[in-house]
Amino acid sequence: MKIQNSKFEVTYYFDNKDKMLSQVFYLLRSRSDGKYLCANPNPDSAVSYLLMFREDYDALSYLNAHAADVADRFGVESISGSSVKKLLERWGFNGVGVVQDPLLPNIEFLTTH
Known about the structure:
This protein is an alpha+beta fold. It has one domain. 22% of the residues lie in helices and 35% in strands.
C-alpha cells in the first residue's frame, strides 16, 4: 500500500505470511468422501494445492461457475489461517491456491517450501 503526499511517499510492506495467519479462509469439502477441493496445475505431476477462498460466497460462486452439476455435493468450511499448515501436512498438499476471482478463475499458488 502506498500513501502519497506532495512532499513524501510512504510505502508500507506487509508480510504475507503474517497476514495469512490472521485471516479466515473458506474451503470446499466433498460431502461424500470428505476430501477437500484442490488444484493440480500440471496433470503430469502429483503436485496438488488446497483451494482456499477469502469469502464463503466466493467458494459458492466458484462451484456454480465451474461445477454447477455437482455443487450440491460440496459444503463450505471455514479455517483460520493459523490452522492451514496442519491441514496441508495432514492431507499431503504441496501448498495452497488462493482464489482471487472465482469466476475467471484467477488463482494465486503458494508452495509450502
